[in-house]
Amino acid sequence: MKTEVRFLLAIFLMLGVLVGTNLLFPPIPPEELPLDSLGAGPAVGGPSSADPTGTGDGAAGAPVPEIPTSSAPRLPSVGAAAPVELPTDPAALREYRITVEGPLYRYEFSNYGARLMSAQMSEFEALNREGLVDLVKKGSGGYMGQKLLVGSDTVDLSGVPFTVEPSNGLTMSSRSGARTLRFVYEHPTSPFTFVLEYEFNPDEYTVGVRGTVESGLERPLLLTDLGEGLAYSEADSVGESRTMAYVTNNVQEGIQSTLLGKAEPTIVEGPLLWAAFKSKFFVMALLAGESDEAATEARYLGGVIVQPTETEGVVRVASAQPLSNDGSFAYRVFLGPQEYALLSSLGQGMEEVNPYGWKFFQPMVRPIVSVIMTIFVYLHTKLSVGYGWVLVIFGVMMRVVLFPLNHKAMKAQLRNMAVQPLLKEIQTKYKDQPEKLQKEMMRLYKEHGFNPLAGCLPMLLPWPVLIALFFVFQNTIELRGEQFLWLPDLSAPDPIYLLPVFLGLSMFLMQYVSYKSLDTPNPQMKMMMYLMPIMMVFIFFRLASGLNLYYSVANIATIPQQVWIARERLKMKGKPPLKMKSE
User: Fold this and answer.
1) Cα–Cα distance measured from residue 406 to residue 18, given in angstroms and rounded to the nearest whole number
2) Do the Cβ atoms of 102 and 91 come closer than 8 Å?
3) Could you report how far apart the first and last alpha carbons of the chain are, in Å?
4) What is the 3-class SS of 370-429, one letter each residue?
């Protein structure tokens, strides 16, 4: 059973118990002991499958049939009918890596094709192996290789040697300003020059990319390889695979997400504001323009091309972008965590690359998630405690804040119990007179405040928080890998399932307190007292341990209220029954 289905089932069961026990099993009279109730051309693959260096870094992407390719990179010669082959001198084919390192990341580029070979996140440990999270898949041949579509031919630059400045890479500190890594390819016999510049900021995950194409070619189309998706980095690879997807944001049609497990070769037509790969907690995106304001129509992405690879079930994605009249291009690349504020700062709706909740829930869940995360970060920062203790504090806080409403609900339950004899009398007396029955029911409400829903409606307020927390623990990077007591990761299930069992016990204890306050046993309530905790353990045992922790703490914090209501029930025993005022 899928996690989302389990959670929905849990919500419906809890709501069913909460409302159903009030309506189906109403309190009995006190004397009987009360009961609580694109359009820019054909597709293109990744870097050339040829491996001129013999290092095994050649891409595995298969070319789309419509695009002619060759084993050696080639360029259409200017003023000549036949293409000109690139030089194959072994001395010119030496490949080496260029490292760019800052406080937030460590990138490795190849001088061949200016391809990104590694993108390590310095602040995040991989949970499925030793070392840092690396967004680039091993053996994929690298990402961000470039091709030019010229008429019916393809200029493949992903396998040609570039000159790099500075050749020893970049090392930046938090005080460093923006630095630029420049790649230049000049064809030895044709007037063709391709310049590609990456601008890095040590305090940002966003990389500015700009370049120019100087040639006698008629305005070619730039194709940028986005690769095969992000590398796995979570302990639960099965759960992580369900979140792997490529996402596009069309100017007219909005955001569309396709799971990689269901992706098929296709062309996603533009214009697009951005195209991205996402995993559970990380994202790699190519955004149109040098900034949000610069993403004008001339800078929009022309579309996205999805093509198969030699590996079954794996696709490779490339973004198409028209060049300006002067042969220039510019875009941004984001490689980093899915922090809501961080993605929001990019503009163009990037914060919705991995939205919280199902589509019909998002308008309700998003504001609640924002408030919850603000509280979480504030408590974590101001109190200097881990997020596990933040959840404990938050669970108690929720019960304290909601205490007046819960107290009101419990008093309404007591009032409803006291009025049960009158209710039963009215229903019996006027069972054949609907109009009179309705009139007397309204009178009962006015004189004694009887309302069958008053005892459960205030208790429904915590459910939006619980639903929002479910998505918080699924998507929020702040809780990834956060340890607490024996729990290695608050965003993952409890590895020994102790917390779900504790959750079930806390639910049993809450119901047991209410049940023991009854002098006359109720078979239905007793059955629910034993059955409901077992069902909740079954449903919650695969949900995030942080969600289990919050819910367990909230249950324990509610027990004092349950004890109070149980004592009040016992006090009602023996009191004279209420009577209606004479008309």
Assistant:
1) 13
2) no
3) 59
4) HHHHHHHHHHHHHCCCCHHHHHHHHHHHHHHHCHHHHHHHHHHHHHHHHCHHHHHHHHHH
**CA-to-CA distance for 305 and 44, rounded, in angstroms?**
7
Return the structure tokens found at 109.
């580029």
- Largest Cα–Cα distance in the chain? 109
Query: Which residue has 């601008």 as its token pair?
Result: 199
**Secondary structure (DSSP) of 428-456:** HHTTT-HHHHHHHHHHHHHHH---TTTTT
**pLDDT for 568-583, tens place per residue?**
666 655 554 445 454 4
Instruction: Please give the average per-residue pLDDT across 41-61, as a whole number.
Output: 37
- Would you list the DSSP string of 46-83? SS-S--TTSSS----BPPPTTS---SS-EEEPTT-SSE
Laid out side by side, the sheet with 105-110 consists of: 132-134, 116-125, 105-110, 97-101, 170-171
Q: Going by C-beta distance under 8 Å and a sequence separation of 6 or more, which residues neighbour residue 378?
A: none
Residue type present at position 428: T
Distance of CA 109 to the CA centre of its chain: 28
CA distances from 17 to 25, 262, 414, 511, 526 (A): 10, 38, 18, 11, 13
Looking at the chain, how many residues does it have?
A: 583
- Answer yes or no: is pLDDT of 284 > 80: yes
Question: What confidence tens digit (pLDDT) does each residue in 87-118 have?
Answer: 444 445 688 899 999 999 999 999 999 999 99
User: In this model, does residue 17 exceed pLDDT 60?
Assistant: no
* Res. 434: pLDDT tops 60: yes
- Asked whether the predicted pLDDT for residue 359 surpasses 70, the reply is no
* Residues 412, 468 contacting (CB under 8 angstroms): no
Distance between CA atoms of residues 65 and 157, nearest Å: 19
Query: DSSP string covering 493-551, please?
Result: --TT-HHHHHHHHHHHHHHHHHHHT-SS--HHHHHHHHHHHHHHHHHHTTS-HHHHHHH
Amino acid identity, position 94 = R
Residues 6+ apart with CB under 8 A from 405: 458, 459, 461
Contact 380, 390 (CB under 8 A): yes
Q: Are strands 282-288 and 170-171 parallel, antiparallel or unpaired?
A: unpaired
Rounded Cα–Cα distance for residues 448 and 62 (Å): 77
**Which tokens sit at 69?**
């390719």
Kindly compute the dihedral angle of the four CA atoms of residues 481, 483, 488, 494, in this order, to the nearest 10 degrees.
-110
C-alpha span between 422 and 447 (Å, rounded): 11
Average the pLDDT over each of 24-38, 337-351, 362-376, 384-398 and give the range with the smallest value: 24-38
Main-chain dihedrals φ then ψ at residue 336, nearest 5 degrees: 180, -165
- The residues pairing with 119 across neighbouring beta strands, listed in sequence order, are 107
DSSP state of 106: E
Mean pLDDT in residue range 126-147: 90
User: Nearest CA to 213 among 97, 78, 62?
Assistant: 78
Question: Can you tell me the distance from the alpha carbon of 498 to that of 475, in angstroms, rounded to the nearest whole number?
Answer: 23
Residue 324 and residue 220 in contact, taking contact as beta carbons nearer than 8 Å: no
Token digits of residue 478: 């702040």
Helix (H/G/I), strand (E/B), else coil: 237: helix
> Is there a contact between 260 and 180 (Cβ–Cβ < 8 Å)?
no
